[in-house]
Every structure is written in C-alpha cells, then in structure tokens.
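Researcher: Re-running this chain for the archive, since the previous output was lost when a drive failed. Same request as before.
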Amino acid sequence: MTGKNDDEATKETIKKIVEEGKWPLFVGSSTDKREDCAQYTHKKSMILKGYGETEKGCGEIEIIDLSGQTGKEILKSVLGQNLESNLNKLKNELWEYMETNEEAEWKLLEAGTGALRVSQDDNARIEAIRRVQELVKESPILNLYCLFKTLFINNLQCKNEQDVNAIKKITAFIRHNIKDFQGMLVVGITTLGDCELLPTDFKDLFELVELETKKEKEMKITNENITQFTHSDDYSSVCIRGKHYALTENQANVIKILHENHEKGNPNLRQTYILKQTDIWSINLARAFQRNNKAFKDLIVADGPKGTVRLNINQ
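Model: Regenerated structure tokens:
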C-alpha cells in the first residue's frame, strides 16, 4: 500500500469514527502526523454539525502537547488546578445566558472560535464569551463543553504508576461528565507499547487508529535491530536492549557466530555446529553459560527447528 493510499484509508477511518459519534485515539507515526489527523477529525466534526470546511464560524481545535510530562504535570495540563470551581463557573455562565436568550446557548458553546457572529454592542454576551474563554484556558478539559471545540491531547504517555493514576483521574472526570460534553476529545500516543499500558477504562472511550504505514513499520524494525544489540570488537562485552553483559572467551565466540549468521539472514544454527565451530567441549550451550545464566537467557532463544538456537533480536 502506498503512502497516499494509507492516508486516504486513515481519512476514511476518521470520517467513520466521527459519523458514529466516537472519539479517535491515534497511535504511532510522528507528532506532526498525529496533529494533522486531529485537525482532519475536527474539520469533519464541524461539517457533521452543519459547518463547511472553510466557514469562518467553524470553531477551533485546542492542542495540548504532553511531551516529557508525567504524573502531576499531565493532570495540571489537562484538568487545570481549579477544575471543580471552573466547571461550576462555566455551567453558571451557560445556564444564565441560555435562560435569557434563545441564541445564547449557541453563542456561548461556540466560545473561542474567533469568528463569532455577535453584535459588537452586545457587551453582556461578549463579556460572557470572554469569561468562558478564560475558564477553558485555565482548565483545558472544559473545551469539551463547547459545541464547536475539539481538544487534542498529543504525546500522552503512560510509563509509570504516577502516569496511570493521572490518567485514571482524567478518565473519572470524563466518564462522570460525558453526557454534558458537546465537543470532541482526540488523543495521540507515540507507540502501541504506551497504548497497551493505558488504563482500560480510558482506552474504552476511544476508537484506536494506527497511523504507521507498512514502510514506516519496516523502517522501525530495521532501526530497532540496529540499536537493540551492540558489542565490543571481540564480543567480550555485549549489550542487548539496554542490558550489558561481560562474556568469557567461549561465550563471546558463541554470540559472535550467532550474530554473524543473523546478519547474513540465517539466524538459526544447530547447537552441535556452534559447539564444533567454537571448540567448546560441552553437551550443549547452556553448559557453556552455566555461570552466566542470565546472559544466556537474554541473548539466546530456541524458537526455530529442533536443536537450533538464534540470537535474541528481531529477525
């Protein structure tokens, strides 16, 4: 599939998600690609609500980039510091003006578009809109109360318990208030690994959309193969996925022959062949690593034909 076809398929997926009233969770590719998809999601949402793609009143997308943020930083960036107070103020603004003007609901929910069709001398309504803008600025999650707004949270990560707890608090707020939301929530995650660590209740709010093309996945695997295993010139010191091991001469020779055959595209070798080539007098390779058992388990796997082993890196 070409890059162009991948993009078209992604757009069709996004369109379907929006039409079904769901929220997308974009996984993979680059920060910019995820943001482009979020912008496209917002545009399709506006069209669904009766606004043209280029119409000035079509609302805004609020973008929060959480790169490098963890735990309490995530909470502060998404919920703000005075969420409950800001939420009550927002509801009061909406209720008060909806009661006094039949158009007020639309005007206030449209707050922040930068292209509101209101009279400049309607000071009361303009001031109300300004207050709504300030509230959603202080607590970005409140953008979801605004009909013509999309909140995009990019580079959300879930690396430790603090991150998990932060995301659980965000999830609790969303689930408690979701019936009142008018806007859209879109989330971008760097990798599927990060996505798998997200709390299930959070993931269930979204439709997952993988953005990596076949070519990008192949390149990623190639890069991982290059970086996941390194060694000294004589293989007496090796590193696999960040773990360092010191090897004896015999052990180094075993890893060397396995690595060289991996590079040739023939990773699986019979243990008897390896023992013969390395002049190791042992009944099997495990004996050669008996005083370095952890290195043996991390470096060597036997998942091919019976009696064969290979170096434990992606093929």
